[in-house]
Amino acid sequence: xxxxxxxxxxxxxxxxxxxxxxxxxxxxxxxxxxxxxxxxxxxxxxxxxxxxxxxxxxxxxxxxxxxxxxxxxxxxxxxxxxxxxxxxxxxxxxxxxxxxxxxxxxxxxxxxxxxxxxxxxxxxxxxxxxxxxxxxxxxxxxxxxxxxxxxxxxxxxxxxxxxxxxxxxxxxxxxxxxxxxxxxxxxxxxxxxxxxxxxxxxxxxxxx
Length: 208
Known about the structure:
Keywords: Acyltransferase, Lipoprotein, Membrane, Palmitate, Transferase, Transmembrane, Transmembrane helix. The protein is mainly alpha-helical and 208 residues long. The chain has one domain (3-163). The protein is built from seven helices and six strands; from the N terminus they run αββββααααααββ. A two-stranded antiparallel sheet has the order 1-2. A hairpin with a 4-residue loop joins β3 (40-42) and β4 (47-49). It is elongated, with a radius of gyration of 23 Å. The N and C termini lie close together (11 Å).
């Protein structure tokens, strides 16, 4: 693991406030608060994503994607029953104009649904990739990516103190034991100041 990678992730002093901050925390100017295991400030829900609500943010993205896909199917089904035009018979442009004339309001809703489906699906896939394959938050991934642009030494997104492998990363985030197959690490990120992690379950210390 490169020194530059560790230095970026293990910064312990908050540059915005003259107090010591836990690892992976970040001061959000929008919320005016320090968020443990800071991921991002989401404009879609108007608050920060951190250790306390990261899991529920994933559920929000998942259900939003499912509902949007169901709504897209519903609009296509409505057009097939109420509009006489078809793509196979009339072509793309004629079908579009006929649909717009047949039900402009449904077309407007369909465009909005497609827009929200695109960003929700993208965020969901990106979040799962970061959690599973990188073990990083969005803020940490962006910070390392920016660091790699200006660093003379290679900065790897995979070789960080928080990446324990795909299965262990998933178990740690979701706190999933899978019938005893995994042993997730339970870490209080609001009180973690060093790279030596203390498990809340057995209070044992192990190096990363």
